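Work Package 3 (structural annotation) set out to generate three-dimensional models for the target panel prioritized at the project kickoff. During this period the team completed the workflow that converts sequence records into discrete structure tokens, so that structures can be stored uniformly alongside our sequence database. As a representative example, we reproduce one entry of 142 residues exactly as it appears in the project archive.
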Amino acid sequence: MQVNSDFDGRLRWRSRYLIHRARRRGRTGLLFQVNLRDPPRNMSLKWCLVSVTENGQWLCSVDRTSTRKVRFIPLPPGTHPLHLEVMRYRKRRSTQAQQNIVLGQGDILLVTCDPVQPNVFYRRSPVVDTWSAQILQADPNS
């Protein structure tokens, strides 16, 4: 699994909307975006579940049946040890990573995941699970 600190810039419309709304309200938290290409009615054993936990406590997860692939989770300012995981039907193919994040008041942590999906016919899947994490600093003028 690859964890990048630089974001490639591809945000969904809902992600941009949730960032704008959180900044307008002065909220601190985690914005979680998953780029799944698997159709919801696919009956394959190659399904995956993408989840984020903190200190063993589940924050959110997304799979192919989830209606929303973008989620905003409010978090208090401070240090957060996050556990990022892509779970698959076959355990040996599951991947995970640890990331310690320090959030200030009004900061938003943008986490995106692009998991490997070998059974898709469109928009080529990456070779390894790719995570991107970036802290969007609060606007000092507001």
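The mean pLDDT is 79.
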